[in-house]
Structure formats: structure tokens, C-alpha cells
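Hey, can you fold this one?
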Amino acid sequence: MNNRAENRHVVDALSDCRAQIKALRETEAKLRAEILADAENRSGDEFDAQVVEITVERIDVELMKAELGLMFLRPFLKQQIQTRVQIKPKPTKKTRAK
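Sure. Predicted structure:
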């Protein structure tokens, strides 16, 4: 995020960015619901919306463990390391006093 005009720390800027993403996802969900609810209103000035249904298959690992047993599944399971950046607000004087 090169446009940090307020000279915010990178951690604070990341928190701001995540808040904006959350707001955009909420807006997207509302707009999507409107499009799905009104089949007659799917053509805008610049874009057309098309609603398409697809079938997706997923494996329920917990059910497979229960049905087949972990000994059977263990050779097929792989672990991955994921790196996450968790942002937590710093305690304020008010929250420290509690």
C-alpha cells in the first residue's frame, strides 16, 4: 500500500486494508443478493450479469476418518505450513484498568 498519506505504521495500514476488504465483501454480498433476487435486472450500462450454477464435489476428511479410519488415511494426508499475520488492537488505558 504505497499511498499511506497519513504516515501510518505498516501494521496499522494492514488493519485498515482488512477493514476496507471486509466492507467491500459486505457490499459485494448485498449487490449479489440483489442480482440473484431480480432476474429482470441483470443488465447494467457496462456489464451484464449471468447466474450460473455449478456442481462442486468436496471430500469430507472428518467423515472419511470416521468411516475408513485414520490408519487408512494417514498416507494420503499431507501437512502444510501456513504463515498468517494476525492483527490485534493494543490495549488502551481503559481496557488495561478492567
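The mean pLDDT is 91. Let me know if you want another pass with a different chain boundary.
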